[in-house]
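_Backbone structure tokens_
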Amino acid sequence: MKDDVTETGPGSTAERGAPIKAGAVSVRCTVNGLEVTMHAHPLARLLDVLRGELRLTGTKEGCGEGECGACSVILDGELVNSCLIPVAQVEGARLLTVEGLTDDERLHAVQEAMIECGGAQCGICTPGMVLAAVNLLGRNPHPTDADIREGLAGNLCRCTGYMKIFDAVVRAVDSSQ
């Protein structure tokens, strides 16, 4: 029995030259403002489909268990760990990854502040930290220090760069006022 199924059409995996595996489903959603169709097993991790099929490699895998926040994305306005989300769950959803933060090649204020404050060291936690900060500032444009700490609490930095990351969020808040 053949394992590959050929499917064609705009945005299909077959259109890009890769066969679609048997058991795969088509999941339509909006990623970074663009409508996409992803083809994967319904229980495939969103993290793997973003990185593998869509080639959005800014989303990182840290622990693979939902503990570190490196794979954070914003799903319908909520910060989630993409390593815990089955791809079938995002049908019709709106996703934002770190790649979707730039506006005409201009970095988001949080990204600029991370650079200015030296908030990125090894880079594994950076996309998740940035999205956690963006999510926080989208909900609360004038956070207190305690709000910032709470907003970043689900993200771990192995390099212990927390103060520089915290300073970057404060700078992003100050720059938007």
In short: Confidence is low (pLDDT under 50) at residues 1-17. The CA atoms of residues 51 and 164 lie 27 Å apart. The chain has five helices and seven strands.
